Amino acid sequence: MGHLLDTIQSPADIKKLSVAELESLAQEIRETLIQTLSKTGGHLGPNLGVVELTLAMHYVFDTPTDKFVFDVSHQAYVHKLLTGRRERFETIRQPGGLNGFMLRTESEHDIYGAGHAGTSLSAALGMAVARDLAGGKEHVVALAGDAAFTNGISFEALNNIADQTKRLIVVLNDNEWSIDRNVGAIARYLHKIVTNEHVTHLHDSAARLLERLGKTGKTAVSVVRRAEEAAKGMLWPSVFFEEFGLTYYGPLDGHNIGLLIETFQFLKAQDKPVLLHAITQKGRGFQPALDKQKKFHGLGPYDPETGETKPAGQQTYSEVFANTLVKLANENEKLVAITAAMPNGTALDLFRPHHPKKYFDVGIAEEHAVIFAAGMATRGYKPFCAIYSTFLQRAFDPIVHDVCLQKLPVVFCMDRGGLSGDDGATHHGLFDISYLRGIPNIVHMVPKDEDELADMLYTAMLHEGPSAVRYPRGTGPGASVKEHPVALPIGKAEVIVDGDDVAIFGLGALLPMAGELAAKLETKGHSAAVINPRFVKPLDRDVLERYARRVGVIVTFEDHVLMGGFGSAVMEVLNEMQLPVPVVRIGWPDRFIEHGKVEQLRARYGVSVEAAMEKLAPYLKKMSPARAFAG
């Protein structure tokens, strides 16, 4: 095997290769992806699917002058390999290494950072209009998966493209999958185009014709275009994308490099917005990724030969959530579960087989998911919306206007509440307390362990208004979940250990830190109370007041930004009560946190027992050990 990839220092090197060499390079890239990601984990399936597309784009266009915008950008690993980051590729998603998504600060070739779906068309249109205003000549290419077209933002952009620019290239990378198989009318429409026997026949004929014609791309593609025009007329009288003003080309084989290069060279010369529909195979070149599309969308380390991963061991919070919901739905015929294209990530794929009629996947459409849930709630149903904390940000207005304002009993189950380590800033769930607790009518809960998560889901089911539960990625402390969950009194904290000098509130996953801090303080002769707050909103004012009148200092731990978070809520209540007790807050600073291992990031940013001891030191000096403070 050659080492073509080692000769690629920049996209300029790709342009020196023949089509046969590019095909060999594609194989090397696939082997590099499979071997490297077996150690680091990452988005293997999506990147195996776009190898030829990315090579052809870099062969025809010239980044960073020309602009590539990748939707979500989890499929940009190949782009990174071709733009001077080959030697660092083994650091991807590792502390201090390459980011798993496009990152503007990482390379001049990463023109737009992303991590949430549906943004590429709007961003690319913004770049194209800016180019037009400045009199530029560069090309702007947006690469979007078919799943991105289930997202409302994509349609808002489509509605504006033809009115606002005369030159934009949209590549629709169609593999029928986002993370799970795509759902809805758009997915069915694209599938209808792809599977129509006339289109398949014409597509194959066009590819053979192109091979015969060789380097006469414009003529060949115009033949393809006429053939496809006829085929599409059989499918739908007014073709979907052309109604939006984009001239449609395709569907083409997204793994035929020669065909892709000729087509891009043709599209490059067009003075109109165009859309190329490319059919690709997610996971191409690695049988385990083809067999298990959901698993290999994004995963941890695996065996590069078999694709096997280490057994998971104990249940994750997501699995506890799904299994509890199955039990609750067994007893409550009005309970329904809603996900926005994340059945695997939220573990609702475990719920679906038990209650298929109570399960709804709305595609990558978080705003719609929330309003859809609100509509169901008006008719007596109890919707549980399972949406990552970071993705629920997109639905802020519907949460305020459609759910909370109308006091509808929708439950927001926020997976990844806290750090989502390897994925980085776009995926950390560090803002939901801030963005939810200022909304009237909502109850916000945070469990200390798996069993308390089940209790909170049961509590939310019984609650007559809106509620939210945040829980971390991965596994918890391993608490056994009892057979029947119990309802928690709304707004009541749990005192784990009583104490007189320091009161430590450890929210959710950071409750163990509160216990560790208390143990350290005890060794220094200070009596420390440990409290599990359970509720961010409403706060347990009685418990807070009791300790504020007794102790010399209060400590709060939260896996969330400090600004507007749980500690801020505590300080606000103390201020209202005119209780002057000092508060030491431990949480994340006012900045976006990079990717890395959770424990390392916590140590770096002071989300630790050591940082708490350091901040407490001035207050402890003023205390006599084991002396209670009277209010």
Structure description:
The chain is globular. The chain is an alpha/beta fold and 631 residues long. It has 24 helices and 17 strands. Helix content is 41%, strand content 13%. The chain starts with 10 loop residues before the first helix and ends in a 9-residue tail after the last helix. Helix 9 packs antiparallel against helix 10 and helix 20 crosses helix 24. The longest helix is centred in the first third of the chain and has 22 residues. The relative contact order is 0.08. It has a 7-stranded mixed sheet with strand order 7-6-8-9-11-10-15, with helices on both faces. It has a 5-stranded parallel sheet with strand order 1-2-3-5-4, with helices on both faces. Strands 12-14-13-16-17 form a 5-stranded mixed sheet, with helices on both faces.
Instruction: From the alpha carbons, calculate the radius of gyration and give it in angstroms.
Output: 27 Å
Principal-axes shape call: globular
Q: Indicate the proportion of strand residues.
A: 5-15%
Roughly what is the average pLDDT, rounded to an integer? 88
Helix count, DSSP H or I runs of 4 or more residues: 24
Q: Structural class per helix/strand content?
A: alpha/beta
What is the CA–CA distance across the termini?
78 Å
Number of strands: 17
Q: Give the biggest beta sheet.
A: 7 strands, mixed
What are the segments in which pLDDT stays under 50 over at least 5 consecutive residues?
205-217, 230-238, 626-631
How much helix, percentage-wise, in residues?
40-55%
As laid out across the biggest beta sheet, the strand order is 7-6-8-9-11-10-15
